[in-house]
UniProtKB/TrEMBL annotation:
Residues 1-31 form the signal peptide. GO terms for molecular function: serine-type endopeptidase activity. The lineage of its organism: Bacteria, Pseudomonadati, Bacteroidota, Cytophagia, Cytophagales. The active site is at residues 177, 212, 370. Residues 175-382 form the Peptidase S8/S53 domain. This is S8 family serine peptidase. It comes from Aquiflexum gelatinilyticum.
């Protein structure tokens, strides 16, 4: 059985409880808390599925009985103690407790049965409870292997958004995804503030076992050198926030933990790219709104269901410093797979046949709103976004403006 908990720079500040569908189980102090009992059960779960007996509990801010004036690790410890006291009132074991949230959200993830849900939802400190679900990358089609590179090229998408600029600022791009290839020669990876949702198995590191997160990072900031590709904000630091596994799958409790981490460690002017999505989650949406309120620019993929983006999280989120991005092809045509809707979509960006960095030091060409979002993230890392024309064929009959620097 594979176990999962949340690790902050190698220090387990909180242990996640719930199953990471398709991949993992969780534990507390090495005491197993199985939600799915076999590999066959794990494999049957798909993006958006509810994870049995797994919940996210959001607390009322006024119910928090401690000061948040210390380090994030100290605040996490205080939150865990506070949550344990709440659970103890209803004889809910700490072994059921998973991640706790204290920067973008006041809350926690927990395993509950039906009777425990009823008890908790009536507790005066609880704002709301929602089921935990599976979440996956917003990529169109299955990831493939990557090829090498013999010389640097500028992908068409980089040119379309105004070309590449050598980044000289001090802000960073937080890539909330599958990790990043830590040793890719075309990426400036800063793992000092990296986050991973895993502490055992092949995903127990910041490194990218899928390729998706590395692809996103390259579009944002691949280095302007003599190899591979070049990103929008070339050479900017990219930070791995690994909430999805090597298959590109994760759970909402883990994604919220990643957002909470960025809210605590990020600074105004940073960007956070979220090329992932699933059904509506109020908890995830609320966490992003709070984190973005700190001045961090959250850039979110619209999704690939050719449907209304208002029906998906985090695509539907609106607020200051939050940008939802649809996808276009090289002819400025709206991508057939892209979700639509105004609001929440703010801009369109290149998302069809996009070449970028890949795991294992390689490069790959793939499509999706996952690929559109990092174009916008690069532009926003450089400063204020502009626009350059509109897409044709937008399904909501209100053409999205194409972002540019």
């Amino acid at each position: 059985m594979i176990k999962k908990f949340y690790r902050f720079m190698g220090k387990p500040a909180g242990i996640a409880s719930l199953a990471l569908a398709l991949v993992t189980f969780s534990c507390q102090e090495n005491a197993e808390s199985p939600i799915l009992e076999s590999q066959d059960q794990i494999m049957k779960y798909q993006n958006g599925d509810i994870i049995p007996d797994s919940y996210i509990v959001v607390l009322k801010p006024q119910s928090i009985g401690f000061r948040k004036d210390g380090s994030y690790e100290d605040t996490q410890s205080s939150m865990r103690k506070s949550v344990s006291s709440i659970l103890a009132k209803y004889r809910i074991s700490d072994e059921n407790l998973g991640a706790v949230y204290s920067a973008a959200l006041d809350g926690f993830a927990v395993k509950l049965d039906k009777s425990q849900i009823e008890l908790l939802k009536n507790d005066p400190s609880v704002s709301y409870i929602e089921p935990n679900r599976v979440m996956s990358i917003a990529q169109k089609g299955k990831p493939g292997g990557g090829g090498g590179s013999t010389g640097q090229e500028t992908p068409w998408g980089i040119t379309r958004v105004g070309g590449s600029v050598n980044y000289t600022g001090t802000n960073v791009a937080w890539v909330i995804d599958t990790g990043i290839d830590l040793t890719h020669p075309d990426l400036n990876v800063n793992a000092t503030n990296g986050f991973t949702a895993f502490t055992s198995g092949k995903d127990a590191n910041f490194n990218d076992g899928n390729g998706h997160g590395s692809h996103v990072a390259g579009t944002i900031a691949a280095i302007n050198n003599s190899i591979g590709v070049v990103g929008v904000a070339a050479g900017a630091q990219v930070v791995p926030v690994k909430v999805l596994d090597s298959r590109g799958s994760g759970s909402y409790d883990g994604v919220i933990a990643g957002v909470d981490w960025v809210a605590a460690k990020g600074k105004s002017g940073d960007v956070a790219n979220m090329s992932l999505g699933g059904p509506v989650s109020q908890a995830l949406d609320d966490a992003i709104v709070v984190a973005a309120g700190k001045g961090i620019k959250f850039v979110v993929a619209a999704g690939n269901s050719a449907a209304n983006a208002n029906n998906y999280s985090p695509a539907r989120v609106n607020g200051s410093n939050i940008y939802t991005i649809s996808a276009s092809d090289s002819g400025d045509r709206f991508a057939s797979f892209s979700n639509f809707g105004n609001p929440p979509i703010d801009y369109c960006a290149p998302g069809v046949s996009i070449k970028s960095t890949w795991k294992g030091g390689a490069y790959n060409t793939i499509s999706g709103t996952s690929m559109a979002s990092p174009h916008a993230a690069g532009v926003l890392l450089l400063g204020t976004a502009k626009t350059s024309g509109f897409v044709t064929g937008d399904k909501d009959n209100s053409p999205d403006a194409i972002i540019s620097r």
